[in-house]
Amino acid sequence: MRIGQGFDVHKFAYGRKLIIGGQEIHYPKGLEGHSDADVLTHALMDALLGAAGLGDIGMLFPDSDPAFRGASSIGLLHVVCSKVNALGWKVSNVDLTLIAENPKIGPYRQAIVSNLANAMEIDLDKINMKATTTEGLGFIGRGEGIAAMAVAALERFHRPEDDGHRD
Ligand code: MG
Questions:
Q1: If you measure from the C-alpha of residue 164 to the centroid of ligand 1, how many angstroms do you get, rounded to a whole number?
Q2: CA of 45 to the centre of ligand 1 (A)
Q3: Which helix (H) or strand (E) holds 102?
Q4: Which of 1, 27, 47, 63 could hold 6 in an S-S bridge, CB 3.0 to 4.6 Å?
Q5: What residues are paired with 19 via a beta bridge?
Q6: CA 56 to ligand 1 center in whole angstroms
Q7: How far is Cα of residue 30 from the mean position of the Cα atoms in its chain?
Q8: How far is ligand 1, taken at its centre, from the CA of residue 124, in Å?
Q9: Ligand 1 (ion): which residues have CB within 5 A?
Q10: 40 CA to middle of ligand 1, Å?
Q11: H-type helices in the chain, by residue range?
Q12: SS3 state of residue 160
């Protein structure tokens, strides 16, 4: 089995939708970025790519590429999972932490987990999502942006041809 970690930060900007885990959150500000700036999904993709040894999302989806302007990160997550699966790995579980002073994410938690599970084609119980604040400290505490951390564990697909063999 393999594990990977991901981390991302985006700053708030007016005139943008706030998208977290593929979910539009009702809030006066959004996050700035080349894509939809879905900070949670970005951290998750980096954790998956890290676990599979596939680099990072900047290598896969360069922000210099106009194709990814305004891109739906949940769509990119599906692409990442396809690449991970193609290498013979399946997602064992993922654990996510969103770090934000505001907005409160609790009312959206189920929708976010469901969005991520659909994009990854895995069961809901393989995804755990937590949210915390920084107790008013630092750029997050001042409401300047949002951070997210993710850990992903991958396990090998069971291959029938491996029966009776030991590595
Ligand atoms: Mg990002």
A1: 44
A2: 10
A3: none
A4: 47
A5: 24
A6: 11
A7: 17
A8: 24
A9: 8, 42
A10: 8
A11: 39-52, 57-60, 73-86, 109-120, 138-141
A12: helix
